[in-house]
Every structure is written in C-alpha cells, then in structure tokens.
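Exercise 7b. Backbone tokens:
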C-alpha cells in the first residue's frame, strides 16, 4: 500500500532548510505589505456588506442580532467580538481585520519555513496576497480568508508532524489550525480533513495514532459550538444539515466552473443565480494557467527531492474546491480562497526554481523575467480590485443611505424592518430585521402587525413590486439617491 502512494517524505536537508531570523523578517515583510495594501485600497472605502452585518450584529451591543441561518458558523462573530465590544465603527473594524489578516498570513506562511526554502513561502505569500479577492476580503468580516489561512497552516503542520515525530509544535499547530477552519466553516473543514486522514492511512510512514487524535480533537473543538447550536436551535445535526442543504439550493452534481469564471472580473461578489454574461475574459487568464503552473511546480519540487511539499497542498486544494466547482449551483470568488492559498506553494516553487536552476550567466535575466511576470500579475489583479471595490462601495453605501432616510422618516429604536434589504439596512438603522418567507423566514404576518401597534415598522419594496398584502394601505415613500438600488420604496403604517 505504501508503494502505491509513490511519495517519499522529503530528505532531511530539503525538509529542514536552514532559516534564520532573516527568513521570518522576509515573511513579515510580505504580511506587512498585505496589510498596507488593504488599508490603502479597501479598508476605508467599503462599508459593511450584507453578510457582514449578519455576523457583526451577533456581538455588537445595542444592535439587534440578525437572523443566523443554518449554513453559517460562529467563527466571524468570535473574531470581531473583542472590537465590537468597544466600538461599532466600521473604519475601526476594517483596520482591526486588516491587521489581523496580515498576522494570519504571516503565521500560515511561517509554518512552511521548516519544509521549504524561505523564498518559496515568501513568494507564495506575494502571489496569494496579491489576488484581488484576498485583498478585498482581508478587512471584511467574512469567513473564507480565515479558512484559507487555517488550511495553509494545517497542511504545513501535518507534513511537519507526519515526517518528524519530534516536532510537537507542528502536532499542536495541526489541531489548532483544524479547529480554526471548523469554527469558521465546518463543511470546509470536513473537505480539508479528508485528504489529511486518507494520507495518514495510506502512507505507512505517516501512520500515527497521535495524528488521528489531534485531527479529531481539532475538528471537535472547532465544531462543538456548531453542534450545540444544531440541537438548541434546529432540532439536531441532521435537521441543521437538511436546512443548510435547502438554503444552499441542494447539494448535488452542479457544474459551477463556468459560474466561477463569471465572478473573476470583480463585478459580482455573489453570483446567484449565475445567469450574467462572462465579461472581461482577460481577467481569467491567470485562472486557466493555475493547473499548468501547478504541474510545473510539481516537476520543480521533484527535482529538488521534495515532491510531497508541492503535491500534498495541491491535492488538498482540489479537495476543498470540489464542493464549489461541482456541487452547488452558484458561485462567489471568495469560495476558492483556500484552494488559491494552497496552490500558491507549488507555483512559487516553480518560479523560484526557474531562478535557482538557471545558469549563472542567465540568472539575472531569469530573475528579471520572473519578477516582471509577478508584477504583471499583481497589476492585473489591482485593476480588478479597483473595479470590485467601486461596486462593493456603491452597493454597501446604499444600505446606510436607506437607514438614514428611514430615520428621517421617524423610524428609530425600537423598530422593525422587513422586506428586501432588511438585514443590512436594519443593522445601520439599529432596528430588528425580520422576514415572513424565504431562507431567513423568522416571523409571521400576524406578528408584524402586532409589533406595528407598539413600535415603528418599515417594509422595503423593490422597484416594480407591490408591498405585502398587510401593507397595501400603508404610506409609500420613495428612497432617493441610491446608486445600486434605485427605485426602492419604503411603506410605513399611517400613524
């Protein structure tokens, strides 16, 4: 069985490269540049998005918690809770998350110092942090980037612990990283754990009861809260999974590769239903090159006698991307962040190999060529980032603008907002949000009418749509000055 795997653990000299303080400084510089890029181009320009208001409202005092649907997990509320207890400032939250994401990138890359020469994880960090999706979601209160950091750290710690039984730090890091991934997205943790567990069984040299125990403990620790909530709020694990499956449109064979392509131009953070045309084809060139560059990275790692450090991250990247490419019928660019993080390692291995393997006379030219290619990639990603930030800023600013209009109309705490856009608008207006139908249904028509007798209720209605029957006699007010949601109206009770 061991021979079928055809992977030998890296040789001692390849597995334990000599890295001093300069190696950490290099990784720290990459992480610091990542944080600075977020602060310059994203953090102070974009207000809270729809999903962010759901997560942040769970832990922000004086703001009613939004409905927390079955597929969500509590990782983001835990992450933002320390700051939310002090302030509800969006700018403070953006800076806080930008700094934390820089630290997360540094820690994830630092795990690989004992497996790869420093230039490889450093360049991998540049490639991953340079993606527009990574920079856009770095300062956002969303789970996917943190799953990416956790996955990158978990795979590195696994390889270290599997190939060096004396590396107890790696063993502890494996459990902690899996706990982090599970806390943020339990389903992603399950897909990540599959290749880790399979490798522990398949590769004889890696069979250790300690590895199984630590992985199980990490999954249990991170998923404990999700399991408890499943029983207290949904009637059990099976019921919560069933509800999650219904909200996500049914988990089954759905080829979503083309849907992911449509999101690569930054024009749509959530493509559902994904029936928009595929524009800006040039923005997807790097995406089509991923498998080619990954294969080249595997070849380079083989020559350096460290195939495992390239092949295993690639296999894990495939596993974590399966549900988002083949099992759901919608797409979002953030879904593939864990896969991009893992694939950055073999790609960086290939690019550094081009430089180190070149003849001395050709090395300056090769270095210049590789640097130019990286710069072109970063510039292309920045152009997409600029477009994505512009669209996100306009969309999210409408939520705050609607909340301001409602307050001018007298909608103040205690208050309830229902209808389309109710969740993000209610966050900015410090109101409760509720829905009578759809995935977030948590109230009834009778309950809304009862609440309207004692507090202000507002119904948001999309353009060319009628209000619900119970609000047909209410007074409509147009909401003006909206950029991405023009034509919306709000209906208020006559009193």
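Sequence design result:
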């Amino acid at each position: 069985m061991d021979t079928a795997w055809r992977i030998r653990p890296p040789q001692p000299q390849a597995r334990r490269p000599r890295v001093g303080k300069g190696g950490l400084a290099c990784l720290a510089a990459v992480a610091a540049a990542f944080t600075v890029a977020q602060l310059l181009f994203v953090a102070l320009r974009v207000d809270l998005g729809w999903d962010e208001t759901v997560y942040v409202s769970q832990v922000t005092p004086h703001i009613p918690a939004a409905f927390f649907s079955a597929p969500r997990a509590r990782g983001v509320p835990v992450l933002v809770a320390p700051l939310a207890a002090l302030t509800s400032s969006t700018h403070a939250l953006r800076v806080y998350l930008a700094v934390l994401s820089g630290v997360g990138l540094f820690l994830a890359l630092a795990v690989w110092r004992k497996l790869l020469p420093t230039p490889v994880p450093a360049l991998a960090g540049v490639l991953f942090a340079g993606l527009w999706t990574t920079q856009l979601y770095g300062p956002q209160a969303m789970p996917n980037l943190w799953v990416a950091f956790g996955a990158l750290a978990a795979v590195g710690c696994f390889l270290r612990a599997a190939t060096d039984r004396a590396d107890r730090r790696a063993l502890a890091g494996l459990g902690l990283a899996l706990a982090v991934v599970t806390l943020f997205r339990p389903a992603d943790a399950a897909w990540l754990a599959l290749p880790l567990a399979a490798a522990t069984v398949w590769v004889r040299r890696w069979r250790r009861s300690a590895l199984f125990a630590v992985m199980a403990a990490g999954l249990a620790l991170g998923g404990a809260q999700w399991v408890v909530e499943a029983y207290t709020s949904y009637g059990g694990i099976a019921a919560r999974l069933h509800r999650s499956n219904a909200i996500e449109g049914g988990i089954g064979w759905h080829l979503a590769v083309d849907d992911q392509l449509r999101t690569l131009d930054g024009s749509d953070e959530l493509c559902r239903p994904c029936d928009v045309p595929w524009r800006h084809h040039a923005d997807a060139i790097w995406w089509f090159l991923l498998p080619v560059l990954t294969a080249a990275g595997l070849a380079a790692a083989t020559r350096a006698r460290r195939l495992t450090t390239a092949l295993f991250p690639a296999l894990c990247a495939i596993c974590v991307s399966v549900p988002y490419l083949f099992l759901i019928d919608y797409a979002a660019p953030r879904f593939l962040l864990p896969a991009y993080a893992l694939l950055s390692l073999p790609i960086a291995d290939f690019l550094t190999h081009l430089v180190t393997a070149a003849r001395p006379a050709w090395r300056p030219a090769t270095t210049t060529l590789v640097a130019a290619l990286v710069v072109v990639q970063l510039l292309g990603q920045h152009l997409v980032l600029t477009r994505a930030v512009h669209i996100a800023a306009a969309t999210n600013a409408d939520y705050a603008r609607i909340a301001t209009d409602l307050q001018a109309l007298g909608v103040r705490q205690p208050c309830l907002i229902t209808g389309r856009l109710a969740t993000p608008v209610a966050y900015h207006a410090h109101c409760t949000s509720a829905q009578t139908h759809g995935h977030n249904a948590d109230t009834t028509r009778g309950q809304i009418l009862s609440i309207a007798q004692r507090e202000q209720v507002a119904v948001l209605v999309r353009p060319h749509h009628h209000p619900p029957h119970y609000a047909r006699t209410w007074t409509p007010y147009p909401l003006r000055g909206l950029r991405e949601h023009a034509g919306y109206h709000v209906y208020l009770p006559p009193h």
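Instructor comment: The mean pLDDT is 93. Residues 162 and 205 are 8 Å apart (CA to CA).
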